[in-house]
Amino acid sequence: MPEQHDLDAVTLGAGVVKRPTRLADGRELIYFDDPDTTLGPERAIDARTLDPRPATATMRQDILTGDWISVAASRQNRAFLPPAELDPLSPQTPTNPSEIPSRYDVAVFENKSPSFGPALAEAHGDAPAAGDPPRGIDDLEHLGLGRTRSSVGRCEVVCFSPEHSGSFGTQSVTRARTVIEAWADRTAALSALPGVEQVFPFENRGEAIGVTLPHPHGQIYAYPYITPRTTRLLDSIDRTAPDLFQRILDFERGSERVLFSGEHWTAFVPFAARWPLEVHLLPHRHVADFSETSDAERDELAPLYLRLLRGVDALYDSPTPYIAAWHQAPVRHGRDTVRLNLQLTSPRRAADKLKFLAGSEAAMGAWIGDVPPEVAADRLRTAIEGVSL
């Protein structure tokens, strides 16, 4: 049996217990135990012999748009649809030297082949400094030919379950609540890292989206810049009103596009949906990110989010591919105006048809909707009504 050790425990909201440790190459691993966990306090030590971590990637600026492109060649070596017995996200066994030494409920660890990090803008803990010139939003917004910067930040993998297959939507309400607690904890921790400007939790689901591991998991990216999508959002807020999200919520709640509404959250198909399946989920009060949500908001979100995901799957006879993107306010900008919100999108426009981004969308960013949002909302409402938890 692998050597075991007790981990320091911190009790979070809803009775979730956090137990941090390290992998053999120094990467951070955090276990988040369900409130009703059957696991004990001991966890196995990662006894693998691992190669050194790859060097931090380099960002290059596209002078035509101002966007920063992270060139992370180490990602070419990541696992691609491995068999269940070699699942790198399952607990380690004598024949599977996976990333997680022990049985777990929810586990979060630093990505082995990250797009950002492990270096940070300044040395922090055991993370080195990138050594770039002084950086900040003004520096990154400056345009110039041949500009490069280190891709500082952090990329983490969030395992929703030790099982080999599934998704967030296949989890129990208790497990969903544990993941939400993990998102809140990691959002706060990653936001405090030097050089991090925005934190983004998300789940890619399905091979049609490009998923290379069927294991139920998501990711969290901590970016060294404010993302292009959020930059455009901040501009829209500047051009309209600081309470734009409340206005959107009031507008959508008065429409036929609402899917369901609870005490703290409302889900709807947006007025100008781009994708054949697109759902937004907004909290009723302003919170900038998961770390600002209350226990009551997290408690309600767990079953509501599961209803939504299972409703999306109930539309057809097979699981629906999607991207579940949790947009959060930047770390230092727009905290009073940018509201936490989910934007779930799927290219599935029929049981056997996908929407591909071709010339107009991919090249020009000029979208053409395939399904009227009101029609999509009606179909989704019917599917959600048949969902049981």
Automatic annotation (TrEMBL):
Instruction: Name its co-factor(s).
Output: Zn(2+)
Residue intervals of the Galactose-1-phosphate uridyl transferase N-terminal domain: 104-226
Q: In which pathway does it act?
A: Carbohydrate metabolism; galactose metabolism
Q: Which PROSITE patterns match?
A: GAL_P_UDP_TRANSF_I
Q: What class of enzyme is it?
A: transferase
User: Which keywords has UniProt assigned to this entry?
Assistant: Carbohydrate metabolism, Galactose metabolism, Metal-binding, Nucleotidyltransferase, Transferase, Zinc
Q: So what does this thing catalyse?
A: alpha-D-galactose 1-phosphate + UDP-alpha-D-glucose = alpha-D-glucose 1-phosphate + UDP-alpha-D-galactose
InterPro entries, alphabetized: GalP_UDPtransf1, GalP_UDPtransf1_His-AS, GalP_Utransf_C, GalP_Utransf_N, HIT-like_sf
What Pfam families is this protein classified in?
GalP_UDP_tr_C, GalP_UDP_transf
Q: Which NCBIfam families match?
A: galT_1
Per its record, how is this protein called by name? Galactose-1-phosphate uridylyltransferase
| Keyword Zinc among UniProt keywords | yes
Q: Which GO terms describe its molecular function?
A: nucleotidyltransferase activity
Domain Galactose-1-phosphate uridyl transferase C-terminal, by residue range, is: 254-381
The Swiss-Prot or TrEMBL record describes its family as follows: Belongs to the galactose-1-phosphate uridylyltransferase type 1 family.
Q: Recorded E.C. number(s)? A: 2.7.7.12
